[in-house]
Amino acid sequence: MQLSKLLQELDSLLAPHKVKDFSPNGLQVEGKDTVNKIITGVTASQALIDAAIEKNADAILVHHGYFWKGEAYPITGMKKRRIGALIKNDISLIGYHLPIDVHPTLGNNAKLAELLDIDYEAGLDPFSEPSIAVKGRLKTPLSAEELAAKIEHVLNRKPLVESVRGKKIETIAWCTGGGQGYIDLAASQGIDAYLTGEASEQTIHSAREQNIDFFAAGHHATERYGVKAVGEYLAEQFGLDVEFIDIDNPV
């Protein structure tokens, strides 16, 4: 498949023009014109690049790419080594951040809901379309302890839990990755629990003082599934050789 055609298909699928993001979405480092083998992964780390080189990949598709707002401009040190390896081996780096979070069927939020048996209802933020955080209901109400056990079993990651309500959880809001700041919006809507990847110091106080159960299940662990699903879509639709590689990260 031509690289230009692949990028057109990804832009059509993920609609990056609909979200205001913190990094460029699409092609970040250009490699060869023809793409047959794609490696997908959460973050464009050196370990993922090395794995792609070993597997003779033509392109890498990630959720966390390069050139973030506020990032230093010079290409030195770690950044030089990463980008240098991509250029030397003629491998394209393609990154989609928020578009992979919010896609209604292939996105991180959607796939996490599937895994944890959550029914999506609506976006959490009524003034943002698409909303980065979303809300819905557990298919089966669970106690905080039961939901924590389910998260640990499904994601293979023991979550940080602040259980404050002492009641079954029915309604839940969630945002994969570093979405802890949305807990206050969830609490203001009377939602029983909020689930994300990370926690900040103030998040626990928000949970306690606003009577909302809180779960932090890992930034990496909650965001493995969107980019993997996009890769599987590309393989099914276009016959590309796509392989997801999970470079584990405890955060």
Automatic annotation (TrEMBL):
It holds the Pfam family DUF34_NIF3. Keywords: Metal-binding. The keyword Metal-binding applies. It comes from the Bacteria. The keyword Metal-binding applies. InterPro entries: DUF34/NIF3, DUF34/NIF3_sf. Belongs to the GTP cyclohydrolase I type 2/NIF3 family. NCBIfam families: YbgI_SA1388. This is Nif3-like dinuclear metal center hexameric protein. It comes from Pseudoalteromonas spongiae.
